[in-house]
Amino acid sequence: MSDKRILLIDDDHDLADLLSAYLSANHFTVDCCFDGQSGLKKAFSHEYDLILLDVMMPKLNGFEVLKALGSQFKTPVLMLTAKGDNNDRVLGLELGADDYLAKPFHHQELLARINAILRRIAITKEHQGEQTQEQLLQANGIVLNHATRQVTCQENLLELTSTEYHVLTLLMQQQGNIVSKEVLSEQVLGRKLAMFDRSIDVHVSNIRRKILPFSQEEKIKTVRGAGYIFLPGESQ
Asked: According to the UniProt entry, which residues carry 4-aspartylphosphate (predicted)?
């Protein structure tokens, strides 16, 4: 099996050398760019399995890179943020990052985050093939197609990130039932929910925002202190 390809965009040359050596030892091929502009060009000109993206960089910062990649860019992005800067984390997720990791971090934690994202992608690809009725999730005007990984609302295509897709899948599979943030974090992000971690909240907010132009009807209800419910709709 060929190595997975990772693009690391970070202006810290020493960190890039360390991460390249560590990830290479764990069967990843790593390309490095040291500013946002060259990183963006590399992301568009080569195929990668995942992008590691720092926030503070010359020429283009991480947020500007995310904006330039756009909602249709399908390669998952793991943001590298400053420790304790919750605003950076939230903004990164709102702009389409799949997850974040605060610096300084342990190499094993980074590897765990990378593998969790890649496992989600692999599970999705396993479902892609000949379409059957079981590969369609339908409720409350939303249709989720596992065969193509397309999601529509009232027949309008929703551009979801990989993480948003998996959050919505889990909520729709449990439609009508409360799904806790702890369960969402463990099953989607591959980690236990940490105190003050707003990642799941931001992903749900992004899904709602993307649905809103096509339907004013509430699809995902927040149950304070408990989690979220995907509402089946009156026709269910």
From this structure: 54
> How many domains, in total, are found in the chain?
2
Structural domain ending residue among the three candidates 95, 125, 155: 125
| DSSP-H helix ranges across 73-106 | 86-94
Confirm if 7 and 39 have CB atoms less than 8 A apart: yes
- pLDDT, one tens digit per residue, over 28-69 is 999 999 999 999 999 999 999 999 999 999 999 999 999 999
Q: Tell me: the pLDDT tens digits for 182-221?
A: 999 999 998 999 888 899 999 999 999 999 999 989 999 9
pTM: 0.83
Taking the C-alpha atoms of residue 201 and residue 219, their distance in angstroms, rounded to an integer, is: 15
Q: Is 209 exposed, middle or buried (0-12, 13-18, 19+ CB in 10 A)?
A: exposed
CA pair distance 168, 48, nearest whole angstrom: 24
Question: For residue 65, which of 10, 120, 103, 111 has the smallest C-alpha distance?
Answer: 10
Q: Report the 10 Å Cβ neighbour count for 174.
A: 15
Residue written as token pair 């995310």: 66
Here the CATH number for the domain that contains residue 144 is: 1.10.10.10
